[in-house]
From TrEMBL:
<comment type="similarity">
    <text>Belongs to the tetraspanin (TM4SF) family.</text>
</comment>
<keyword id="KW-0325">Glycoprotein</keyword>
<keyword id="KW-0458">Lysosome</keyword>
<dbReference type="InterPro" id="IPR008952">
    <property type="entry name" value="Tetraspanin_EC2_sf"/>
</dbReference>
<comment type="subunit">
    <text>Interacts with SLC19A2. Interacts with NTRK1/TRKA.</text>
</comment>
<dbReference type="InterPro" id="IPR018499">
    <property type="entry name" value="Tetraspanin/Peripherin"/>
</dbReference>
<keyword id="KW-0472">Membrane</keyword>
<dbReference type="GO" id="GO:0005765">
    <property type="term" value="C:lysosomal membrane"/>
</dbReference>
<keyword id="KW-0812">Transmembrane</keyword>
<feature type="transmembrane region" description="Helical">
    <location>
        <begin position="211"/>
        <end position="237"/>
    </location>
</feature>
<protein>
    <recommendedName>
        <fullName>Tetraspanin</fullName>
    </recommendedName>
</protein>
<dbReference type="InterPro" id="IPR000301">
    <property type="entry name" value="Tetraspanin_animals"/>
</dbReference>
<dbReference type="InterPro" id="IPR018503">
    <property type="entry name" value="Tetraspanin_CS"/>
</dbReference>
<dbReference type="Pfam" id="PF00335">
    <property type="entry name" value="Tetraspanin"/>
</dbReference>
<keyword id="KW-1133">Transmembrane helix</keyword>
<dbReference type="GO" id="GO:0005886">
    <property type="term" value="C:plasma membrane"/>
</dbReference>
<feature type="transmembrane region" description="Helical">
    <location>
        <begin position="54"/>
        <end position="73"/>
    </location>
</feature>
């Protein structure tokens, strides 16, 4: 009986934390939705075209609502000793785990297509909008300066671009070594061999793969523990009913 009480308390506390986290996320989502201008000031610049595809506020509210529902199910199920609520909690966690596993498998299976897909999105923007759209230009300049890279693949992404034509067949300064001393033309850019930003992003990601893997393992462990605790309580109550 002591073990059951302890597990029950752990279940309640754990789900209260989930519920609290959901409330915080939903509150942040509401703030973003109501006061979007203030929120955008703390983010890197993006064009309206890109933002139209992503509604951060609605996404945060949705995830927060799901977390609150999940937390209340687990908390009420343990507190009221309801087998129905506990099995619902277990089922939702199981579905989330399956979805995460499926997403991981798909990501691994299609990882070779990632560069192709991103290049198809990024290259037209560099060709047509870099140097014309100030927001996109500032974003790319910040990225290239921080990562010490040029374009998506390399300097050729800027060949015959709007920027290239408007600046006398020159490339952005980050594409060349010593641009303050030598003209950043095709010969200099080719000689400098500055790597593309995609390669730099992959390099940085690989450096942090242990952190990402640790976080993923921690989340999975928490989900499995929650499933185990809820099933233990369910089985105990089922035996108790018999």
């Amino acid at each position: 009986m002591g073990c059951f009480t302890f597990v029950k308390v752990v279940m309640v506390v754990f789900n209260l934390l989930i519920c609290l986290a959901g409330i915080c996320m939903a509150t942040a989502g509401i703030w973003v939705t109501v006061n979007e201008d203030s929120f955008m000031e703390v983010l890197p610049p993006f064009t309206d075209e890109y933002l139209s595809h992503v509604n951060v506020g609605i996404f945060s509210i949705t995830i927060g609502a799901v977390m609150m529902l999940l937390g209340m199910l687990g908390c009420c199920g343990a507190q009221k000793e309801s087998k129905c609520l506990l099995i619902m909690f277990f089922s939702i966690i199981l579905i989330i785990c399956i979805a995460e596993a499926a997403a991981a498998i798909v990501s691994l299976a299609y990882s070779s297509y990632t560069e192709i897909i991103l290049k198809a999105w990024a290259t037209p923007g560099l060709k047509e909008q870099y140097g014309k759209d100030q927001i996109l230009t500032d974003l790319w300049n910040s990225t290239m300066t921080t990562l010490q890279c040029c374009g998506f693949s390399n300097y050729t992404d800027f060949s015959e671009s709007f920027y290239y034509k408007q600046n006398g067949a020159r490339y952005p300064p980050t594409c060349c070594v010593g641009p303050e001393l030598f003209r950043c033309d095709e010969d200099n850019a080719n000689f400098s061999s500055v790597v593309g930003c995609f390669k730099q992003i992959v390099k940085v990601t690989r450096r942090n793969v242990d952190i990402v893997g640790g976080i993923a393992a921690g989340v999975t462990a928490i989900e499995l523990a929650a499933m185990g605790v809820s099933m233990y309580l369910y089985c105990y109550l089922d035996k108790k009913a018999d």
